[in-house]
Amino acid sequence: MTASIPLSLYIHIPWCVRKCPYCDFNSHEARHNIPEALYVEALIEDLDENLPSIWGRSLSSIFFGGGTPSLFSPQAIENILSAVRSRLRMSPEIEITLEANPGTVDESHFSGFKSAGINRLSIGVQSLQDGKLKALGRIHGREHALRAIDSAVHAGFDNFNLDLMHGLPGQSMEDALNDIKDALAFTPPHLSWYQLTIEPNTFFHHQPPRLPEEEVLWDIQEKGKETIADAGLKQYEVSAYARAGYECLHNKNYWEFGDYLGIGAGAHSKITDVNAGTITRHWQVKNPKDYGDSSRSFTSQKVVLPPHDICFEFMLNALRLTQGVTIDLFKERTGLSIDVLEPILTIAKNKNLLVDSPMLLCPTEHGRQFLNDLIELFLPNTKTVRNIHPQNDKKYPPT
Description:
By secondary structure, the chain is α/β, with parallel strands linked by helices. 34% of the residues lie in helices and 22% in strands. It contains 14 helices and 16 strands. Strand 4 (58-66), helix 2 and strand 5 (89-100) form a beta-alpha-beta unit. The chain starts with 6 loop residues before the first strand and ends in a 23-residue tail after the last helix.
């Protein structure tokens, strides 16, 4: 039954104050006033257009990503959520996350977002050192970030994520560990800690900064993981660490190959139709200026995934989880027999990349260290591995 597959809603807010040089998300500098009211109206119309594909299903999570969703007013966020509630059922334990940039919020904003219905924040700290933040092109400094975290806590948010990056230009292991220790001082229930990589179509790709050597990166990763673990946060995904019960439900749904509807400029969706035996992806119009044009559909492209793409996308996501997933989950979420993965599973197990179990699809410790090598075994000839998720807490590369 499709009802057994969790369904999430992703809402994309495409504007930011300034485009970061490492960012390859669909984000656009807000050079003039953001057309907030018109965009909210378009989001609701987009949702209405796509309701038939998810009718009768219940939402397990909602995620406002960007761009910088915290540029929108609390009233706009409340209007969007009210429209969603009037059209879709929600799980009583629904997780509703909003990404926030420390340079765009204060305690009054956080209080307003909480009143609007947001119950989880993802705060894009990236670093807590002014020099590193400047190198990353961030609009906030250390004091902005510290104040934002403190304001979120005082506004009543007990469920929040702090986004930290490592492998930054000119970063030493001491720098990276100081960032972690400063962030952990706020006892965050969730920490995203991931390495900066240079993505195509970014400013850093055209003018690469000087990044730490491989040996330094390795030392940072090993010592960083140890420091985070000592603070009581368990690693449950390549770049995600959480206290028990605070794992990000929205991102777990991606990694476990659940369904999601994406609305907003450039958002995309994965929807399963069990009766038809299909999994369909569709992408929304990317340019904010064209999004909401009454002469065209919100959806720019739609494709039914062939079995080899389904297998690859499932493994691309699931193998990021440190505990892996069950064989039964593969069958349920893909509609395919596990036999379609043979003999690749045998090859992966022989290379000590995959745990030798008849019940689990789980990387070994060696497999986690060489995750790209493991994933590439399942790669269709037409695809290239990219270590990012469709839409979530920002990950470069690995939420």
